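Students often ask what a holo structure prediction actually looks like on paper. The answer is less mysterious than it sounds. You provide the chain, you provide the ligand, and the output is a string of discrete structure tokens encoding the 3D arrangement of the protein together with PAD.
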Amino acid sequence: MSTAGKVIKCKAAVCLEVKKPLSIVEIEVAPPKAHEVRIKILATGICRSDDHVISGSFHSPLPCILGHEAAGVVESVGEGVTSVKPGDKVIPLFVPQCGECSTCLNPKANLCTKNQLMDCNGMMRDGTSRFTYKGKPLYNFANTSTFTEYTVVTEDAVAKIDAAAPPEKVCLIGCGFSTGYGAALKTAQVEPGSTCAVFGLGGVGLSVVMGCKAAGASRIIGVDINKDKFAKAKELGVTDCVNPKDFDKPIHDVITEMTKGGVDYSFEVIGRTDTMTAALAACQMNYGTSVIVGMAPSLSEIKFHPMLLFTGRTWKGSIFGGWKSKEAVPKLVSDFMTKKITLDPLITHTLPFDKINEGFELLRSGKSIRTVLLF
Ligand code: PAD
Ligand code: ZN
Ligand code: ZN
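The corresponding structure tokens follow.
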């Protein structure tokens, strides 16, 4: 029996308040309106950005449905949708690509102005929600909301992918992998023979490592306070692992000494302001580039000595790896299918969706890289 045009009752993990486990409840998902797509989620990864909302560090309106790293299949489409149809395998995009705004029209840029990461109003573009719980609307998160059996996104926030792609793997292309890999290849544009330092060796940081390696970096220094992250980091291309806890001087001084003057490219992939400035200071003072990938707390500010930039360093940020989402995601999936890229080392745990809170505990305790939840 077709569900198109009807309200769907389904299971979702709702974030009712901060610092509490997600509640697995039955919600209602309204049909897609014009230029919207309703997706049945097949697999979703747990990213630290979701946890930043649960911990209260990143502000997004509650109650909401988190999750932004998923793969699914189109259940139905609203009026005017032409790029996907029911039955298509897809990846939702937390950075949309409308194709019309000033950023979409600029070949160098990717953060479509219709993204919801800055103002975070948690609503669809018409100001309403497609999710209802106990008769009240629920907010969405980052254009996507994938911790639910069904979600609704705008057409510019969904990419059609190879029908044969395994959802339990390629869901990582929806965030963690693409974000890290692109930060190295597209945002920093790491060159062959360069030296790199990656601060934070979680799912995104390890993907930066893979990007640096693919670009031909000759030395990749991995920085983490959890030494259990080092073995996998080495497997993926890290040449030197450093734990700031093992030194009694600042980690940027350690890296500057190790590289006789600082790395060509550094990446902050943790989400802390102190490591953002440390990563900046760890790159070569005149031609080094430092890229912020980690998501700092909503209310944080950075204090740093202007001399760090005055000497010539470049400081950049990178969201979704600089990729233009709708066109890049299908290509990254093809690269996975042809084994040009690998995702398997990032997936340490697979759990049924009901165990989502266990998945978050694995992340918080530093035991997992990525947990993928299956529906
Ligand atoms: P993760 O928690 O799996 O990895 C973070 C790593 O940092 C862990 O291995 C920690 O042990 C390590 N760490 C923590 N504190 C320190 C410290 N003081 N010094 C050194 N290492 C430390 O997270 P993740 O890989 O899922 O995400 C990393 C960040 O990237 C996080 O802030 C997330 O919100 C952000 C992100 N940004 C984008 C984007 O588009 N820019 C996308 C996805 C995630
Ligand atoms: Zn993410
Ligand atoms: Zn746009």
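The mean pLDDT is 97.
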